[in-house]
Amino acid sequence: EVHLVESGGGLVQPGSSLRLSCAASGATLALYTIAWFRQAPGKKREGVASINNKDGETHYADSVKDRFTISRDNAENTVYLQMNSLKPEDTAVYYCAAVSTSIYILWEHEYDYWGQGTQVTVSS
Q1: Helices and strands (H and E) in the chain: how many
Q2: Are 22 and 36 in contact (CB under 8 A)?
Q3: What is the rounded end-to-end Cα distance, in angstroms, of the chain?
Q4: Among residues 71, 66, 81, which one has the least CA distance to residue 51?
Q5: Could you give the C-alpha distances from 54 to 33, 46, 51, 65, in angstroms and in order?
Q6: How far is the CA of 52 from the CAs of 41, 79, 92, in angstroms?
Q7: In this predicted structure, what is the pLDDT of residue 54?
Q8: Residue 93 and residue 1: Cα distance in Å, rounded?
Q9: What is the pLDDT of residues 30-76, one digit of tens each?
């Protein structure tokens, strides 16, 4: 059983940065395609970024391109989401998700394992 735990959320001002972490127990994250999703109040959950388990290729939603970076630290068995130039519209609960197959898409139904989420609030 893959158990994912997100951390690093918080309340920050617009223009600030945060780094979210997704740590795993019960699995080696390097073997999984990992994605970050987010869900704002009253909105559907949307894919933010993914990193492939075979070639490390990354994909981003247009809304976060050039501001967010997804990366892995295999030694720490952790995946990160570096978020820069945060905007109020980035406010959401952020979830990490994992799937053992090699995929390049941010469709939530493709991912089998989910964390509980971490709240990110961007406000002045």
Answers
A1: 0, 11
A2: yes
A3: 40
A4: 71
A5: 8, 23, 9, 22
A6: 28, 11, 24
A7: 94
A8: 23
A9: 999 999 999 999 999 999 999 999 999 999 999 999 999 999 999 99
- What phi, psi does 9 have (nearest 5°)? -70, 170
Q: Which residues contact 85 (CB under 8 A, 6 or more apart)?
A: 15, 17, 67
Alpha-carbon gap, residue 28 to 32, rounded angstroms? 8
How crowded is the C-beta side of 39, counted as CA atoms within 13 Å?
11
Give 103's pLDDT tier (boundaries 50, 70, 90).
confident
pLDDT value at position 25? 87
φ, ψ for residue 52, nearest 5 deg: -75, 150
d(CA 75, CA 59): 22
Task: Name the token pair of 118.
Answer: 């971490």
- Beta-sheet pairing, 118-122 with 92-99: antiparallel
